[in-house]
Amino acid sequence: MLPYFLLASSSMTRRLRIDRTASEAIIGRQHRPPPRAFLTVFAPSDRKSPIRTLWAPGNKRGGIVDNTRSTATGPSYDPLSPLQTIRPDLLGFVFHLSWLYLLFYSSAVDSGRPFGGADTTDIIYLSSAVALALTLFVGAIRTKAFMRVAESKPCALLAPAVTALGTLLYCMQLIVPSLALVICGGILTGAGSSVLAARWASVFGNVGSRVVIANFPTILVVIVAICVSIGYLPHELCLALLVLLPLCSGGALQFARRYQRSREAHVERRHDADGTRRRAHYAPLIALVGLIGFTVALLPSFEVSGANYGLLFYLIAAVLVLGFVGTTIFLADRRSFPVLFLAPLAMLALILLPFAQYSTETLGDAFYPVGNIAFELLLLFGTVLFAQATDRSPAKTFMIGRITLALFDMAGSFLGQHLVHLGDATILVQLSGVCLFAASELLLLALVVSYLGHSRRSLGGASAKAGAATTPAAPVVAAKAVDAAVPRRNEVLARIADRFALSERERDVFVLLAEGRSAARIQEDLCIAAGTVNYHTRNIFQKLGVHSRQEIIDLVHDEAATARNAD
């Protein structure tokens, strides 16, 4: 969120409107742009500006949104303006989570007929987890090729259809009990849902970390409300929803892609001094996800000792994660805090308290499935933030995290069952306490590190954009002095992209063209077709008034030189 303040002359009696080009305003009855001298940019710490604007995606440029209303006494704050931060393209992920809940954690498809001593839900979960892990393993190794195929039109239609078909086969075992139908349904659902989940990770990765954090409470409330209300639906309606939800998820993905491509976003690629992207190590991610997944699967087996450690862990995780999200939203914009965090938190309490009071099951049995689905959302949330912090592919990061979760989840389940039969109650209590403490501490450490890294990047970005009007702290002054000699490449690219009004996809292609990439390399990096590359390249050439890649490189070089001279 970039807090800009616009100060207009006292003669402005009508509302200042910023259009898509951010260069024209309507002043009084004279429909003409205001003089440049009337617009002044203030530092983020300046709170005396009469007009406060938010960085929210309500504007098609993905930039400044006017959240004030002109009154007789002056401009006033619009309390509903933070709602513009809620992204409809991200809310579609609830279809995927709802399908997971219905398939694995509800009794809608459980026939109660065991096959070979195993429950049908366990069989489809195991077969689906194996198929999902194998598919994502291929995707993690060949991410670019995998995502290129996943984003193609045939696969965009095939993946939801395969997932729905696998779900339908699993539902058919209610009529014709068959182990083959259950296993086949599990394989199809695992393969199809893995492609859908990877595409959703890519969708979340296309927005900034602040947008992801701001939308997390709303998405959490929606999915919890769905999970709680599903149990009151008729059995036939649950089966119909179970088959239709993968198709809805695929349709929501197509909408999300069109929605994001119709918006313009800032270039956020980070480079080192030599122009190469920084390498990231996935060991912290694997350790965190593995330990938490292992603990989540292991703790339910220890309920025989009299304490529900699984529910306790979910409560601790909920407090830590919501505390991190709430603190980040509050520090970013206090005025948005009630709408983006307190309101969803109140709705969450209104949903869960009656559910806990009137549920016929124990608290552990009632809340544990909801906690598992919330953890699926947390996994996507955490892997996307990790990818953005380390400048890596969100899809690849999510696939690595999801593979780790699937493997450690199965390992924790098997180990827990054996320990229950082999160990006594005292050992189980001690072991569960150690696992609970270790997982909670590691999750807390990850959130603290993530918050510090997010705050550091926000401080650096805000001070760089504030310019001479800002009086930063000593470390920021030193960093700014170093950056003044060689302006950051992404800032130069963003300035050019803003000037020529490039679309989101054109910005991505423009960044790679400025690096001298060939059309084939751009096609591979962005996972798009060759015709799409040529189409966007022609549009970029036309908007910039150039005829070759070399002219684009020269334009970027001249812009960087101008910025250095200005500094």
TrEMBL record:
SMART domains noted in UniProt: HTH_LUXR
PROSITE patterns per record: HTH_LUXR_2
Gene3D superfamilies, from UniProt?
A: Winged helix-like DNA-binding domain superfamily/Winged helix DNA-binding domain
GO BP annotations of the record are:
regulation of DNA-templated transcription
InterPro entries on file: Sig_transdc_resp-reg_C-effctor (IPR016032), Tscrpt_reg_LuxR_C (IPR000792), WH-like_DNA-bd_sf (IPR036388)
What Pfam families is this protein classified in? Answer: GerE
Membrane-crossing residue ranges in chain numbering:
90-108, 123-143, 155-173, 179-200, 212-233, 239-259, 280-299, 311-332, 339-360, 366-387, 399-421, 427-452
> Listed GO molecular functions?
DNA binding
* Record keywords, A-Z: DNA-binding, Membrane, Transcription, Transcription regulation, Transmembrane, Transmembrane helix
**Which residue numbers delimit the HTH luxR-type domain?**
495-560
Protein name (database record): HTH luxR-type domain-containing protein
